[in-house]
Amino acid sequence: MKLTPALLTVIMLLVVGGLVTAFVAKRMLAHEQVVVQEETVTVPMALTDLKPGTVITEGHIGLGPVRPDQLNREVLRTNRVVVGRIVKSPITRAQPILTSDLYAPGERPPLVVTPGMRAVSVALSNGTALVDGLIGPGQFADVHFTPSGNSGTRGGMVMTLFKGVKLLAINRSQSSATSLGQRSNSVTMELTPEQANIMLLARNRGDINLTYSPNGLGNGGVAVADESRAYLDEVLGLAEPTPPFVTEIYKGADRRENTFDDGRLIQTDSRPAIPPSTPQQQTAG
Q1: Does 225 reside within a domain?
Q2: Were both Cys, which of 128, 140, 200, 267 would link to 259 (CB 3.0–4.6 Å)?
Q3: Same domain, 199 and 96
C-alpha cells in the first residue's frame, strides 16, 4: 500500500485523536478520585488495639477517613465524646469506634474482688513507685512502706508491708494499657481485711512503693495483734512506749522533780517543798 498524502493525513488525525481521548480520560479519572476523597468523613479511631477496662486518653486516639456509606448512628464522630470513657468491648485499631464499644460517660466496670478480700486504693508520688509503668493490673507486687520522719527509728527506714499483692487497677484503669503521670498516680490493690487496716494507716504516715513480684500471690505480710485494728508501733515493729519516769529530790526547803523519757532527762521542775502540817493551837477559854 502506498503512503499518499491523504493517507498520511488520516493517520495523523487518528494519532492526535487518540492522544486527546487518553488525556480526557485521565482527567476524568483524576476528577473521580478527587470526588471520592471529598466524600469521606473523618472520625476518631484507635491508634492501637484497646482492651476492655482501658481509660481512653488523647494518646489512644487519632483521626481516620470513612466513607459515608460506612457510617451509622453507632459511630462516634468527635474525640470529645470518646476521651475519658472506658472500653467495654475490644476495639480494633484504625476502625470507627462505636457507642456500644464504650461504657456510658461516668460509668465504670465493676471491680472483680476475690470473696473475703477488700479493694484498697493508695495514692503514689510518681511513676517510679509503680516500677515506671512496667507492672499493671492483674500482676503481683510487693508493697513497701517508708515512714515519714524518723518514727522512732535510727535515721529512717523502709520495710516490706506485704508480699505478692494482686493489683486490680492503676489510675482507675483495669487493663494493662495504663498511662502514668509525672506526679500523682493511684493503685488499687486486693487485700485481706487485716492488710486493709494496715494499709489505710500506713498510707497516711509515709510513702508507699511497689516492686514487681515474679512469685505470684503472697501469703500475708505484717501481722498485728488484732485483725480489726492496727497501730503504727505494731506495723513498724517497735516496742510499746513506756511512760515517763519522775524522780523527786528534796534539799532543805526546796523540791526538784526530774522527768525522764527513754533514759533521757527531758524536764526539771524546782519548787518549794510543801511545809509539814502543824497542829492548830488551842485557845484558852
Answers
A1: yes
A2: 267
A3: no
Q: How far is CA 30 from the centre of its chain?
A: 51
Q: How many domains does the chain have?
A: 3
Bridge partner list, 190: 119, 166
Q: Which residues contact 13 (CB under 8 A, 6 or more apart)?
A: none
Cβ–Cβ under 8 Å, residues 161 and 145: yes
Does the residue 25 lie in any domain? Answer: no
Give me the domain span that covers residue 269: 242-274
Strand partners, 254: 251, 272
- Angstrom distance (rounded) from CA 231 to CA 28: 83
SS3 content of the chain, % helix, strand, coil (to 5): 25, 30, 45
The whole-angstrom separation of Cα 37 and Cα 68 is: 11
List pLDDT tens digits, range 78-117: 999 999 999 999 999 999 999 999 999 888 888 889 999 9
User: Is 0.85 surpassed by the pTM of this model?
Assistant: no
Bridge-based pairing of strands 185-191 and 61-66 is unpaired
The 8-class DSSP code of residue 20 comes to H
Cβ neighbours of residue 153 under 8 Å, at least 6 residues apart? 147, 236, 238
> Do 228 and 123 belong together in one domain?
yes
Task: Let me know if 55 is exposed, middle or buried by CB neighbors in 10 A (0-12, 13-18, 19+).
Answer: buried
Nearest to 220 by CA among 117, 125, 136: 117
CB-based contacts of 108, cutoff 8 Å, min separation 6: 86, 172
Asked whether residue 61 is domain-assigned, the answer is yes
